[in-house]
Amino acid sequence: MKIHNKKAVFFDLDHTLWDFEKNSALAFEEILQKYNVGVGHAQFNELYSPINAKYWKQYRDGEITQMQLRYGRLKDSFNLLGYEIDDEKLHLVSEEYIRLLPINNHLFDGAVEVLEYLKSRYTLHIITNGPDVVQELKLKNANIGHYFTTITNSEKAGHKKPHAGIFEYALKAANADKETSIMIGDCIEADVQGALDYGIDAIYFNEHKLEAHPSITQVNHLLDLKKML
């Protein structure tokens, strides 16, 4: 299916272009060894991923602060492993994680190829809920920042996806219209439904082939976008 009459393409960053799970695992592998935390990094990451997703949803919904997100997801992970960690070490681990996370620069397969393909056909933009400085570092270290005309984050916009305010801010920054824009992201609630509710078409990056409503346009690999855009 070819999508026509679009001029601006908006991407989510984490879990869409930037491989959060792989980069996060590498950061924790280094951190757990550095601070002599007596848990295996593979086991830790397996537990951390769903806990992190739960905390991000609470953060998107405005139920917790960014600091509560950063510490709560770690504390819950260690508790689930039965590992006692004092607040001082937990603080060190959290700060080190935020420092190391954007240093790793693994992207999803096909990310650079599809950005190269799209850059001469559309203006490209980022809409992310991640913190300003961290997201900028991810884009810089992964060497993909130059593809994007604008980068909108929740700190700049004053709203988090799926709130309409962040999409309104992003379109205004990009000098783009709803009708000629499209959003691509991995989260049904934040990226896809958020964009659709605001009046922007959306494509669901469904890497894990999760069940989704048949009305939702989706791709399972980033290179599939070349057939649609």
TrEMBL record:
Gene Ontology terms, MF aspect: 5'-nucleotidase activity
Question: What Gene3D superfamilies does this protein's entry cite?
Answer: HAD superfamily/HAD-like, Putative phosphatase, domain 2
SUPFAM superfamilies from the UniProt entry:
HAD-like (SSF56784)
What PANTHER family would the database entry show?
PTHR47478, PYRIMIDINE 5'-NUCLEOTIDASE YJJG
Protein name from the UniProt record: Noncanonical pyrimidine nucleotidase, YjjG family
Q: What is the lineage of its organism?
A: Bacteria, Pseudomonadati, Bacteroidota, Flavobacteriia, Flavobacteriales
